[in-house]
Amino acid sequence: MPEVPEVRDSAPPPDKPSRVQRGGGVMSSTGLYIATGIAGFLFLVPFYLLVRNALSTDTDITGENWKFFPTDIQWGNISELFNDGTVPFAQSLWNSAVVATLHTIGVLLVCSLAGYGLARIPYKHANKVFYAVLGTLMVPTAVTFVPSFVLVSSLGWVDTYQGLIVPGLFSGFTCFLFRQYFLGFPKELEEAARVDGLGYWGAYWRIVVPNSLNFFAAMATITFIQGWNSFLWPLVIGQSPDAWTVQVALSNYMSNQTVIFHMIFMATAFSILPLVFVFLFLQRWLVQGIAQTGIKG
Fold it and tell me: How far is 191 from 28, CA to CA, in rounded Å?
């Protein structure tokens, strides 16, 4: 019987990555690190200028001879800020904390309930209501500003927390985001809750909210920052110095005649500290929550 010749695989061995290819990976990683370092440096420059000017005199800030850091650090600017009789800065910090916190809690409660109702409760006019909510996003704030002030003034809420908080408890955009999120929430969990005898309210509080903390934290972060940075409405409603928020207090260091630079920078440094702490504490949930919005449905 003739011998059958052995058939060998003639396919060439897989190519090893060349030195050029390996070098390209190293070069791309190096470029990424360089770009990240430059971006981080540019991000930190405003904070450096803020701290540098807060601990300087007005002459050091506006003078021609620029120094990386002042030779004579003005630690007394801190006591000057909090002992200023014309601007109650400590009270304004407290007012901003109260207003931003209660504003955040109220917006999360109202908008999450509205978004859940639009996403889950069957109602023949649900889409019309949803489109009406979206329509509020196209109405400029200036259009509703005067009527809102007249209403708040008639209720006697000028210079009160109610006047600062209640008119902003509903946000059409936040309601829209909650609706989009709840449309992607697993219905099986809610159906199991209804089998156990829970209604929409019980399913919302016991099932939906505990399993949506990431998204709630993201919305809380955005809403808190928005409430803390609000300026125009607190400026109109908080007419008494005792009702000023931190943004209104900052504006009082600037006038047509004078600008107190070192006080502005020192006050700004203290005003951003709560935002930095909130962002650092909730940044992980912020990214996860925004990624879960889905923009579906």
Answer: 50
Q: What angle do CA 270, 275, 279 make, to 5 degrees?
A: 145
Q: 3-state SS of 150-217?
A: HHHHHCCCCCCHHHHHHHHCCCHHHHHHHHHHHHCCCHHHHHHHHHCCCCHHHHHHHHHCCCCHHHHH
Burial of 183 (0-12, 13-18, 19+ CB in 10 A): middle
Distance between CA atoms of residues 196 and 189, nearest Å = 11
Greatest Cα pair distance, the chain, in angstroms, is: 113
Q: What is the pTM of this model?
A: 0.81
Residue 93 has which token pair?
């910090």
Name which residue leads in pLDDT, 124 or 205.
205
Mean pLDDT of 269-284: 84
Q: Are 262 and 53 in contact (CB under 8 A)?
A: yes
β-pair partners for 254? 259
Which of the 8 DSSP states describes residue 253?
T
19-54 and 261-291 are packed helices; what angle lies between their axes, rounded to 10 degrees? 140
What is the C-alpha to C-alpha distance for residues 212 and 215, in angstroms, rounded to an integer?
Answer: 6
